[in-house]
Design goal:
CATH superfamily of the largest domain: Vaccinia Virus protein VP39
Low-confidence stretches: none
Largest sheet: 7 strands, mixed
Helix content: 25-40%
Structural class: alpha/beta
Number of helices: 8
Number of strands: 7
Shape: globular
Strand content: 15-25%
Oligomer: single chain
Number of domains: 2
Mean pLDDT: 90
CATH class of the largest domain: Alpha Beta
């Protein structure tokens, strides 16, 4: 994601970048290093994630980084030149047209939206069914089973607190996937698809994702 952002973001002037759903801030830090002229804001709904991000920053703070705890739908700030969302847009509990309109409002004209999210395919359809089934039978024993599997798959890369934070996502099917219909909804709000990048799945428990880049234009009247 860092490399994709660096490839499409303006590098010749100071810009504002939002990492929407920044988690514990790893991408924010990478973007701040790669884009030293940018102000990079990491926004996440989880106080635990933001606390972890701020602890990490305390070991080596960057003047161009800010972390904010909040719900994106109620978040208000000046427009951004770039909005990055890595594996989050499909989870936001909102009407899709309203979400697209807010993303467009939060971007300057000619700004860029870079979103990594599940796309329409048979694997993701099947996995969404599995997640709905898990949600229907959720119980403490199932949480423990999922956590144990996560430790086996990701224990070297993530600590227990981070893994526990992500257990709940196994019960959440995507509210939307990247497909022609979603691109039409984005275009109606003024977000026009420019290109796509393939992403390699890192876990069998992960939905298949693709990065899509949109540019903010004025929609036709």
């Amino acid at each position: 994601m860092r490399d994709i952002v660096a490839a499409v973001a303006p590098l010749d002037r100071p810009i504002r970048v939002l990492d929407l759903g920044c988690g514990t801030g790893s991408l924010v830090v990478r973007l701040a290093d790669t884009l030293p002229a940018a102000t990079v804001i990491g926004l996440d709904v989880s106080p635990a994630n933001i606390a972890a991000a701020e602890r990490s920053q305390a070991r080596g703070p960057a003047s161009n980084v800010q972390f904010v705890t909040g719900d994106y739908l109620s978040y208000r700030t000046d427009p951004f030149d770039v909005i990055v969302s890595d594996g989050v847009l499909h989870l936001i509990d909102a009407d899709t047209a309203s979400l697209a309109a807010k993303l467009a409002r939060d971007l300057r004209r000619d700004g860029t939206l870079i979103c990594n999210m599940p796309f329409a395919c048979a694997y993701n359809t099947a996995f969404a069914i599995v997640r709905r089934g898990l949600r229907a039978i959720r119980a403490p024993w199932l949480d423990r089973t999922i956590l144990q599997a996560a430790r086996m798959l990701h224990g070297r890369a993530m600590d227990d607190d981070a893994l526990r934070e992500r257990v709940r996502y196994m019960y959440i099917p995507p509210r939307r996937v990247m497909n022609a219909r979603l691109q039409q909804t984005f275009a109606a709000a003024g977000l026009y698809r420019q290109t796509e990048y393939a992403m390699t799945a890192t876990s069998p428990s992960q939905l298949r994702h693709r990065v899509t880049v949109f540019t903010r234009r004025d929609p036709p009247q």
